[in-house]
Amino acid sequence: MTRGYPLSVGNDRVLPPEYSGPAFVWDIDKTYLSTALSSWRGLARVPVEFAIDKRAIPGMPEVLRGLRRGPGESFECRPLYFISASPPFLRATIEGKMLLDGVEHDGITFKDWWRTLMELRPGRLFEQLGFKTAALLRGRLDRPQCREYLFGDDYEKDAEAYALYARWLHGDLKSDDLDTVLASGGVAEDDRKAILMLAERMPEPHGRVGKIFIHLEKKSSPQAFKKFGTDLVAVKGALQLALALFQEGLVDVACVRAAREAVTAAPRYRYGNCEELSLDALKRKLVSREKWRQLKL
After folding, report:
1. pLDDT level of residue 265 (50, 70, 90 thresholds)
2. Rounded distance, CA 179 to CA 162, Å?
């Protein structure tokens, strides 16, 4: 019998099955927090960090608060979920950091380190394509009709996992195709079977993925992501993300301004030149000139 993919699922807010509004799913590591999970040295440091030791990427807490609030005059409390490859026992530490940043959420899905190590599969700690795909599919079962917006980074395989999940959800891939892509990405056979089992549980009809936003933490070229199509948006830092979200009507002017102020105030931040970032956002059409004029920055 195939066991499920080792996930530790936290869902603190049960949405009505018919909810079809927006829901936001964020990767934590290197998308919201500057976390080192790509090496054994980074992994060894994670368990001994306190909430106060965690560092948020400049401007990202402001963007998260803006998404949660919504673009309207009243506080909409829009659904916000997180995915983290960190171990589940760090939940309290991560939630402590979120409390310090004023970031509310409705649930966090972690990779189950304990089961992974008990099964003598330490390599799975670094395998992200299967984990992210499984976490997204599992989350969708709890909110089948929503329109999801996905947020990740260029350090791991967020773009590949998110795009793969979207293609499956939109009916562009069959089970055999999904299995083939996962196998080519190095996902083990038993994990692929567990992921396919999750995919087969997907109810019909179901919602779609709206946009995928990839934070260029490694300063990758945006051109490298054009192969994923126009629904994937590569952004340089929180300001460009806020501009792209404003273009989509998901945040208001106050959110963009708050992100800009936070980025400007961050010393030696790689994406701290707001004028240059804004010009690049206009050039790459992350935000239209009409929307830009509304901001009056």
Report:
1. very high
2. 15
β-strand 80-84 against 108-111: which pairing, if any?
parallel
The encoded tokens of residue 175 equal 């089970």
Q: What is the DSSP letter of 122?
A: G
| Stated pTM of the model | 0.93
- Residue 261's H or E segment, with its range, is helix 253-265
SS3 47: helix
Measured CA to CA in angstroms, residue 181 lies from 105, 168, 185, 201, 215 at distances of 31, 11, 6, 19, 23
What are the structure tokens assigned to 47, written together? 């368990």
Q: Which amino acid is at 271?
A: Y
Place of tokens 């404003």: 246
Rounded to 10 degrees, the C-alpha dihedral 74/79/80/83 comes to: 180
**How far does the chain reach from its first CA to its final CA, in angstroms?**
58
- Please provide the size of the chain in residues: 297
Q: Which two tokens stand for residue 238?
A: 């929180």
